[in-house]
Design goal:
The protein has 422 residues and is α/β, with parallel strands linked by helices. Helix 3 runs parallel beside helix 4 and helix 6 crosses helix 8. It has two domains: 202 residues, 3-Layer(aba) Sandwich (Rossmann fold); 185 residues, 3-Layer(aba) Sandwich (Rossmann fold), CATH 3.40.50. Helix 6 links the parallel strand 4 and strand 5. It is built from 18 helices and 14 strands. The strands form two sheets. A seven-stranded parallel β-sheet has the order 3-2-1-4-5-6-7, with helices on both faces. Strands 10-11-9-8-12-13-14 form a seven-stranded parallel β-sheet, with helices on both faces. InterPro entries: Glycos_transf_N, Glycos_transf_N_sf, Kdotransferase. It holds the Pfam family Glycos_transf_N. Belongs to the glycosyltransferase group 1 family.
Length: 422
């Protein structure tokens, strides 16, 4: 009865979803493309022929980058596989296009309404489904289980806050988690929470993001940018709404070159206006000259996609976005792998273990607020010995935890073998 109520709400909400997509498409045109795919209606047929169809769902940019790491390992272990990639956001879909090879397909994630999900599964008929990190959708999982499609949650994480939310909706979420075939968690703590909400066959394989190798060309680009500037560079990395304004109230423009890289590209213009409204001069990455040399300004704005490694290579210190407001933080593994020391705010519950491990390893420091962060950053860039130690600790920390991609790919192969035998 309760599942029927959920399905009714999902069905009734479809016009609202269409309006939401239309509004978002004004700022991000990608949301206005292929809209009918969201409702399980497709212009292209699933290609017939050989090869296993591996379906990976990566909702947004971060999950897509984690999926790319897994996919590289999968293609080695499953030569000839075909990828069906689904996304939920425009940035995730744009990033996912880079992963496609001949014979692969990419569409939007179907809205979690029973009819849309059934049309999606009937159309594409994947051999296995891999949901990245936190993507639990009741109809998607229950309908896949009904068709005998093995479904895994890879690079899985579940915070205490999310567990409490799932327990409040246990009537819906417990059956959804139970419909999974396997769960491959990032940490033991994540595994314990996933078991508590009813997920079966939970194992700990580590965090895929440790296996990402920073692009050497991007690292070189960032170092070249840094060499063009005499001041130390401090970056607010993957900033979220409200954090930029708080930082701008604290900064000292005389000794530090500030760099802000917003988490979401649709906020680039908003952050630019915010900086200028504070009487600060601004230079946007998109306006730098052809050789990429930053223009002089109080604040540089990283308004580009796919250059995060370059920004970390440019920065002497990174302040971790999402950790100063109650948003749970962001992934700091890439910063460590690029040799960039990190200062975190108090809120890192979405990446609890990685943040604590980085702090214990000496790759990151914890501060209470932006005021303390600015003071700590100023001290750090002036202390060569401490800065060098944090940089080297970050590189060692990132290297120490590698291997999740191969372990996860091997688990996918075993899952497929078990499915094919049955």
């Amino acid at each position: 009865m309760l599942l029927a109520a959920y399905n009714l709400v999902a069905w009734l909400a479809q016009p609202l979803l269409r309006r939401k997509l239309a509004r978002r498409a004004v700022a991000e045109p990608g949301y206005g493309e292929h809209v009918e795919e969201r409702f399980g209606r497709y212009d292209v047929a699933r290609p017939e022929g050989g090869g296993l169809w591996v379906w990976i769902h990566a909702v947004s940019l971060g999950e897509t980058r984690a999926a790319a790491i897994l996919l590289a390992a999968l293609r080695k272990q499953l030569p000839g596989m075909r990828l069906l990639l689904t996304s939920g956001t425009a940035t995730g879909r744009a990033e996912g296009e880079k992963l496609l090879q001949t014979g692969d397909m990419q569409v939007w994630q179907p809205w979690d309404e029973r009819g849309a999900v059934r049309r999606f599964l009937d159309h594409f008929r994947p051999d296995v489904g891999i949901l990245m990190e936190t993507e639990i959708w009741p109809n998607l999982l229950l309908e896949s289980a009904a068709r005998g499609i093995p479904m895994a949650l890879a690079n899985a994480r579940l915070s205490e806050k999310s567990l409490r939310g799932a327990e409040r909706g246990a009537w819906l979420m417990r059956p959804a988690y139970a419909a999974l075939t396997a769960v491959w968690a990032q940490t033991e703590a994540d595994a314990a929470r996933l078991r508590a909400i009813g997920a079966p066959s939970v194992s700990v394989l580590g965090n895929l993001k440790f296996d990402a190798d920073p692009d050497p060309a991007l690292l070189a680009r960032g170092r070249n940018w840094r060499a063009s500037n005499t001041k130390p560079v401090v970056m607010l990395a993957s900033s979220r709404e409200g954090e930029e304004a708080e930082l701008l109230r604290q900064i000292d423009r005389s000794t530090i070159q500030w760099l802000i890289v917003p988490r979401h590209p649709q906020r680039f213009d908003e952050v630019a206006e915010l900086v200028q409204s504070q009487g600060l001069s601004l230079s946007r990455r998109s306006s730098w000259c052809e050789d990429g040399t930053p223009s002089p300004a109080d604040v540089w704005l990283g308004d580009s996609l796919g250059e995060m490694a370059a920004y970390y290579a440019m920065a002497d210190v990174a302040l971790l976005g999402g950790s100063f407001a109650r948003l749970g933080g962001q992934n700091l593994i890439e910063a460590a792998a690029c040799g960039c020391p990190v200062l975190m705010g108090p809120h890192t519950f979405n990446f609890h273990e990685a943040a604590n491990l980085a702090e214990s390893a000496g790759a990151a420091g914890r501060v209470a607020d932006f005021s303390e962060a600015v003071r700590a950053a100023n001290q750090l860039v002036q202390d060569v010995a401490v800065h060098t130690a944090m940089r080297e600790a970050g590189l060692a920390f990132a290297a120490e935890h590698r291997g999740a991609a191969d372990r996860t790919a091997e688990s996918v192969v075993k899952l497929l073998q078990g499915s094919l035998k049955s």
